[in-house]
Amino acid sequence: MPRPPKHAPERGDARTRLLEAAREVIRTKGFTATSVDELCQRAEVTKGSFFHHFKSKEALGVAAAEHWAETTSAFFAGAPYHAPSDPLERVLAYVAFRKSMMAGDLAEFTCLVGTMAQEVHASSPDIRDACGASILGHAATLEADIDAAMTERRIAGGWTARSLARHTQAVIQGAFVLAKAGNDPALAHESLDHLDRYIRLLFGRPLQEKALP
C-alpha cells in the first residue's frame, strides 16, 4: 500500500494522533518493536489517553489497519490513473502510479498493513484479518477495469480479473520486501517494470510503442 496524505488533526483528537503515530512508527520499526510508550510520546498523549481509546496494543493495530484502509481508499479514488478512457490504459497507469510513489525513505512509501501482516499473521489473527481486508479490498478496486479490458480485447484463459488484481498486490508487496532487504528503492521499481511488461503480454499489448515513420 501507498504513502497516504498526512493529516494535521486538531490537538484534541488524541485517537487520530495515535493512529497517525502508529502509521509512521510501525512502518519504520515494525509492530512488535513499537511500544505503547513510544506511540504516546510521538502522538503527544498520555498513556491513560491511549488506553481510553484502545484497550490494548493489538486493538490499536487493528484500528491502525482500518484507518490505513480508509485514508488510502480516499487517496486512490482521486488518483490520476483513473483518467484514461481505455480500461487497459487505466490498469497500466495504476502500475505506473504505484511505481512513481516508490521514492524517498523506505518507511515513507512502504505499506503499513503489508508490514504488519508479514510480522503478526500467526500471532494476531485480528490484526492479520484487518490487514487482509485492506490489501484485498484495494485489489478489488482494480477488478472492473481489468474485466472491461478483458472484454474489449476478448481475452479468456485460466485467470480472472480478480486473480490478476490480487497478483498486482502480490508484486507490489513483494517489491516492498525486496526494497527493504536490499535497502534500495530501485529494486521495487524493477519489480513494477516487470509487472507492467507482464500485463502488456497478457493483453497482447506491444512492450514498446514505436512511432510511425
Automatic annotation (TrEMBL):
> Domain named HTH tetR-type: which ranges?
12-72
Record-level Gene Ontology MF annotations: DNA binding
> What's the domain of life for this entry?
Bacteria
Q: Which residues cross the membrane?
A: none
Keyword vocabulary terms for this entry: DNA-binding, Transcription, Transcription regulation
Q: Name the PROSITE patterns on file.
A: HTH_TETR_1, HTH_TETR_2
DNA-binding region extent = 35-54
Query: According to its UniProt record, what is one Pfam family this protein matches?
Result: TetR_N
The protein's matches in PANTHER family, at most eight in alphabetical order, are given as: HTH-TYPE TRANSCRIPTIONAL REGULATOR LMRA (PTHR47506:SF3), TRANSCRIPTIONAL REGULATORY PROTEIN (PTHR47506)
- Protein name as catalogued: TetR family transcriptional regulator
Organism in which the protein naturally occurs: Corallococcus macrosporus DSM 14697
